[in-house]
Amino acid sequence: MIRLTEVGKDFGGPLARLRRERVRALDGVSIHVPAGSAVGLVGPNGAGKSTVIKLLLGYLHPSRGGVEIGGMLPRDYVERHGVSYVPDRVTIPPWWTVRGALRTFAALAELDDWEPRVEREIARLELGPVADRRIRALSKGNLQRVALAQALLADRKVMILDEPTDGLDPEWVARVREILAEWRAADPERVLLFASHDLDEVERVADQVVVLQAGRVHEVLDMAGDGPVPSWTLEVEGTESARLVAQAFPGALPLPGQAHAFRVEAGSARDLGRRMQTLLERGGVVRALTPGRGSLRERYRSSGTQRRGPA
Ligand SMILES: Nc1ncnc2c1ncn2[C@@H]1O[C@H](COP(=O)(O)OP(=O)(O)OP(=O)(O)O)[C@@H](O)[C@H]1O
């Protein structure tokens, strides 16, 4: 559905080249987002995430390589079918009201049944109490919810989000996850591409994660795949068992929000078996042992992704 092939993007004209101020924002980037999938773009500041998004919206043209959505040039696709989009910086005229802004966006998208749609999104994003407030008077989280409401107004096949949960509290981060899952479930062909610094969130939402670093694809992680299992989730009964986990698995990490649950690692299945035996022999009571893929945070760290230096 979305395909970037060997894409390069340079910023700065001939003068910048002479002054050696030209920025190579993307270099040889290939990304494929099949219909029905959700792809997360991660990477340090300046890695090129927003540039990928701007190329997909047709705001920028690639310096090299090809970008297409549904087999069309991005600008043509956007004009013909529309793309739902939440930008990294939400810019809505500050004197508009929330309801007025959503009505205007619905009118611009030429939606027939715009009135019930606007009210549906106001309800879904729980914007009722601020619906008649001016944009300038909104908190960052509420403004982000207006941006999401705007993106959900029309029934598009493609949704592109730049830092969708930026400024939201944990409750709303979870709610947005549900909303995106509902959006995807309503049409199995729908495609979601989003950039985020929130690795836990990316892990929960994405089927595939593209790690960008200094304008190149550093790694593509298949979140649904069944590759090597570097870690396990171990749940035990009571504090004494929890203490014994630390002895059997030095380096066990307690999982936040779950009592007596740990992420544990072992070099091999045999090593895992030995450590489990130690735990049981010492009187540990095990509730569950489930394979984990290793969290995206761990994999991201272990892939050695570094922050980009000055361009
Ligand atoms: N209009 C522009 N002119 C010149 N350089 C630009 C322009 N837009 C982006 N860049 C440069 O391109 C590189 C990639 O930027 P981009 O905004 O795509 O990164 P990002 O991964 O989205 O970063 P962040 O996580 O900080 O949002 C950076 O070095 C940035 O300074």
UniProtKB/TrEMBL annotation:
Residues 291-311 are annotated as: Disordered. The keyword Transport applies. SUPFAM superfamilies: P-loop containing nucleoside triphosphate hydrolases. It comes from the Bacteria. The keyword Nucleotide-binding applies. GO terms for molecular function: ATP binding; ATP hydrolysis activity. Keywords: ATP-binding, Nucleotide-binding, Transport. Residues 302-311 have a biased composition (Polar residues). InterPro entries: AAA+_ATPase, ABC_transporter-like_ATP-bd, ABC_transporter-like_CS, P-loop_NTPase. Pfam families: ABC_tran. Belongs to the ABC transporter superfamily. This is ABC-2 type transport system ATP-binding protein. The lineage of its organism: Bacteria, Pseudomonadati, Gemmatimonadota, Longimicrobiia, Longimicrobiales.
